Amino acid sequence: MIFSISWRNVWRNKVRSLVVIFAIAIGIFAGVWATAFMTGMMNQRIQKVINTELSNIQIHNPDFRKTSEISNFIPDANRYIEEIKSIPHVKGVSKRIVIQSMVASAETASGVIIMGINPSDEPSVTNIQEKIIDGAYFEGIKRNPVLIGKKLAEKLNIKVRSKIVITVQDLENNITSGAFRVAGIYSTNNNMYDENHVFVRFSDLAKLTGLPENAGHEIAISLTDNKYLAEVQDKVKSLAGNLEVLNWKELSPEMSYLTETMNMYMYVFILIILLALLFGIINTMLMVVMERTKEIGMLMAVGMYKFRIFWMIVVESVMLSLVGGVFGIILGATVSKINEKYPVDLSMWSEGYEQLGYDAYVYTTLQPTFLINVTILVIITGIIAAIYPAYKALKNDPADALRIE
Asked: Distance between CA 282 and CA 276 in Å, rounded?
């Protein structure tokens, strides 16, 4: 009976109730959609780190990441690669030469990281071959082809088939140079990465530096699914011995921090919205109680328990909150699902986003558990909003309340 009475009470003043419901719905819609948008943006950035920049797991000589010395290589990288390929859930393995060096065009020069890769193996661990926007992936140039980022090409003022000179330090600590020709220009929509990374063939860079063909500075490992990360990393560590084995979270701590804190930030955002709505609901319920002072006094006078009156007001507040909250959740979820297929276009600010490594087109990601949690928070908000108005109602003296006209 309390529920039916409370539901009827919600609609006694339809205009006021609809205004409150609309305000709650808009607030919850904004929170749900903004959360889906930020989660999607975060997931796209993480996927870019894994699929384009790092891969899931990397193996190094323990001293390589500390000093970046060319001599700190993995002596028998090929043997490790064959053993790692047999581990379940491993999708691909590729070794690399990694050297901090200088690249120069006819006009200027720039410090870069030279990545010596095997063109046939690298597509199994990263998708750099899919990012080519001009030229081809190590094709069309017979001798010493090179891939460079769009941002670096603009800086050096070069294009496909332009000649560049790469200067490196070999194993004997001699400074040596090699002439390369641009086979392709790539763009990852991360300006910092595009400006600092140059890709050449492993064999060409090994010949230039004197590095053994079976060696490598880095072994990149990609997985069929990131959920197997800890399991595969443990197995790789058992094979790698004293070598350093790190996953993408350890290689890029800022991305790990982003994943750990984003959910917390989103709930804080929702709580701020609900806090603002809380005061609106409290104000509405106070008006409801004041308008029905005589009615509530009459109920107490005929012997209705105060708890039942308190419960009636709480249920009314929860229903008011829940109607607006559910409508807002449905609207937010619908728009978010649409944006999973049709991305949010931020191309107007693409240059700024690309400086930070984010895409200008964002696909939203909605988590069902988040919707359940928001629904629970809406109910809690309704309960909290009813406490003070209900307390005020129960403080009224029935005799005084009955005298009110």
From this structure: 10
Residues 315, 292: Cα–Cα separation, whole Å:
16
User: Which structure tokens are listed for 385?
Assistant: 């909003």
Distance separating the N- and C-terminal Cα atoms of the chain = 27
Q: How far apart are CA 28 and CA 43, in angstroms?
A: 22
Span 123-167, pLDDT tens digits: 999 999 999 999 999 988 888 999 999 999 999 999 999 999 999
Q: Cα–Cα distance between 113 and 91 in angstroms, integer?
A: 26
**Looking up tokens 């276009």, which residue turns up?**
345
Q: Residue 19 has what pLDDT?
A: 86
- β-strands 175-186, 145-149: how paired? parallel
Integer Cα distance of 77 and 245 in angstroms? 13
Q: What is the DSSP string of 285-298?
A: HHHHHHHTHHHHHH
Per-residue confidence (pLDDT) for residue 302, from 0 to 100: 67
pTM > 0.90: no
Contact 177, 167 (CB under 8 A): yes
Average pLDDT for 186-213: 90
Cβ-based neighbours of 165, under 8 Å, separated by 6 or more: 103, 104, 105, 177, 178, 179, 180
- Looking from the CA of 32 toward its CB, the CA atoms found within 13 Å total 32
9, 316 in Cβ contact below 8 A? yes
Distance CA 58, CA 80 (A): 12
